[in-house]
Specification:
Elements lengths: L1 E5 L3 E4 L2 E2 L4 H11 L3 E5 H5 L9 E5 L12 E4 L2 H8 L5 E5 L1 H7 L5 E7 L7 E2 L8 E9 L9 E8 L1
Parallel strand pairs: 1-8, 4-5, 4-7, 5-6
Antiparallel strand pairs: 2-3, 2-9, 8-11, 10-11
EC number: 1.5.1.3
Pathway: Cofactor biosynthesis; tetrahydrofolate biosynthesis; 5,6,7,8-tetrahydrofolate from 7,8-dihydrofolate: step 1/1
Protein name: Dihydrofolate reductase
Length: about 160
Amino acid sequence: MIAAASKNNALGKDNDLLWHLPDDFKRFKKLTTGHKIIMGRKTFESFPKPLPNRTHIIITRDKEYTVSFEECIVVHSIEAALKLVQNDEISYIIGGGEIYRQGEKFATKIELTRVHKAFEADTFFPEIDLNDWELIEEEYHPRDEKHQYDFTYLTYVRR
């Protein structure tokens, strides 16, 4: 799983991000390019167009939902999405909140950008249970002229 969440686990509000962190976007692009990314319909619809050089697997309960981009596959459950990536060395669950909740039990790694501020939101990242996850890498990024908030890249692996 890959996400950026505030200190109160906020992810977004009204299907939009709560911050603009260019270095985090660069990291997300670097990690996910060339891989399959699994997301909910609302997360997909928050993009102006599909992200380049990635296969998008979109989960929706709507059996009539279609997408006219060849780099997109529509499925109707987290299990169906995971079946499409079972032979891939790396794939990413990229959100939103409900997809993270459903996918967490299947994940082996979490790449989390922890934004050091609490936000009002309507979508949240699940609480990380440190009995299940071990923090193996941590890199602090201070607030600067391009980043309104300080944040830390955290890498967790399943225990």
